[in-house]
Amino acid sequence: MANLEQVLITAKQHLAPTNPELARKESLLNALKQRLEELRQQADKNFDEMAEKEFKESDMLEIQEYKYKLEQISLHQQQLRDMLVHEDSKTIELGRKQLAMQDVKEQLDNSKDMYSTIQKRIGELEMERKRLARISVAYLANTAPYQDRRMQYSLAITMGSLVFGLGLALITNKLDLRLKTPDDITKRIGVRIIGTTTSRDKIKKAMWPRQLADDYHSICINLGLMNNCTIPNKLVISSASPREGKSTLAVNLATNLAKIGKKVLLIDGDLRKPDIAKYLKLDNKGKGMHQLLADFKLRDLLLYSDVPGLSVLTAEPCDISIINRLIHHKNMVEFINEISRIFDHVIIDTPPVLAAVDALLWASMVDGVILTSLAGHTETPDLKDTIERLKQINVNLLGIVLSNVKYNQIYYPYGYGYYGKTNVIKDVKQEPADNIVIPEVK
Q: CA 253 to CA 220: how far, in whole Å?
């Protein structure tokens, strides 16, 4: 570049500024300067990379050195911990040996004391053995008259047993959670009684159907009196648990309403265990609620009982998928409202509330719910839980029917108390009770 600059200076002195040779030399000089600058930048970059690499290698060596020192320190710490644990073990073992030695020493001292006591006692016995025998009178015995208290003890035991038995009976009665009388429901649950049905105990077998017919007739009348002389249009009959008489009540209530001239539709809403067709001795021939999903018309599914005015929509046991599709169907509420305009009363028999959620879904579609309970079977917590679940969905609970009640505790239909003061119904000839479903007696 220096030689070219000198040549360029000489050329400028001898050549004209427009000479192409002069321009070529200037261009070559500029290219050399640019290349030199590029080489300088590349050299700077290479130097920086080499320096950074060397620094990294130096740092890695230093880090490795520190790691090695740290490992040595950790190893030394572990050795110290092992030594401490060993020393602690030795200290504990030494302490145990000292305690064992102390126990042995105490046992030795006790043995020495016992040995001394025994030796002393042996010496006393030896002295007593060598002493001459003597007889002395300690005191004279006193005499007292004998009193026979066996009668008093027997009376006391008898009275104690009687008091204990009464106390045990009271405690057992308090702990018994089963509902047995209408008073139990009124006091424990706080819900009004619509009526009761009579147990067959102490009632002649021939008289029991007539008595049940009177009971269901009283329930029907009482239901109207408790609702301003009007029985709701749409009713659900349910219970807390299975086998508490809900299907029997549904059939007999529908039958009584039909007998007084009402147009009644009885729906078997218990799609898990339908019983209405069996109780009314109807041959449904495959007809049932589930066919509503197939767009069957209501008139094609209805069956008719022997009681004029009573129509029945039966059911067959269904899978849970069909039950969910049917009850959750968007048109089910509309269907219930539509048929309620055709019939004076629509009565739906549902599953027990605590056994399936179907009962709550049916209850949300009607005007009122009647619960049944079985005397001596239904427990207070179950019935309270059932009522609480109905309250949570704002259902109108009309009342409770208590079934299988003893004759001297049945409820007077108009609410004035109990009737029937004797335990046995007199043999009075009455008309037979027709179309009454008799509950199964276990």
A: 6
* Rama region for 281: left / alpha / beta (φ>0; ψ in -120 to 50; rest): left
Write down the pLDDT at residue 390. Answer: 93
CA distances from 191 to 96, 179, 390 (A): 73, 13, 13
Find all residues with CB under 8 Å of 275, minimum gap 6, and list them: 247, 268, 349
In the chain (442 residues long), the average pLDDT of successive 10-residue segments reads 84 80 84 90 90 85 89 91 90 88 89 88 80 58 59 77 72 68 84 89 83 89 85 94 92 93 93 90 79 76 90 87 75 87 94 90 92 90 92 93 84 42 41 63 45
Q: Is the domain defined by 178-409 classed in CATH 3.40.50.300?
A: yes
At 170 the pLDDT is 65
Asked if 293 and 332 touch (Cβ cutoff 8 Å), the reply is no
pLDDT given at position 425: 39
